[in-house]
Design brief:
119 residues, mainly alpha
Length: 119
């Protein structure tokens, strides 16, 4: 019996590569989550890409700029920490925000609810 193995088509391969790219970038951010100095330049270096190439690729996949992407990763992790009962000031620090008031403002803009009411 002659079985044929289906090969993924190019759009499936591209989708997998895009997912992998986003996962790797996210992992680098999470590895430096509490470092408020971790910047786009650091992320590009970790990804072994020029800033321009990284921007173009990330924007085309996620629709977000690198700065927005970093902020969203930090805020999504902050939500997890808040749900686990952590204090706002501690969550801000652990997710790379030096200023708890700024963190609260950014959090509310993203989630539509202040961190103190989030659970």
């Amino acid at each position: 019996i002659d079985e044929q193995v289906e090969q993924p088509n190019s759009s499936e391969q591209e989708a997998a590569a895009n997912d992998s790219f986003v996962e790797i970038a996210t992992k680098h951010i999470l590895d430096h989550l509490s470092d408020s100095e971790y910047s786009i330049d650091n992320l590009c270096s970790d990804m072994a890409m020029s800033r321009t190439k990284f921007y173009i690729m990330l924007k085309s996949i996620t629709g977000k700029s690198p700065q927005e992407f970093i902020r969203v990763v930090r805020l999504e992790r902050a939500a997890v920490l808040l749900r686990s009962g952590a204090q706002i000031r501690d969550v801000a620090e652990r997710t790379g925000f030096d200023n708890a008031k700024y963190f609260s403002t950014v959090f509310k803009n993203y989630f539509g609810i202040s961190p103190s009411k989030f659970n």
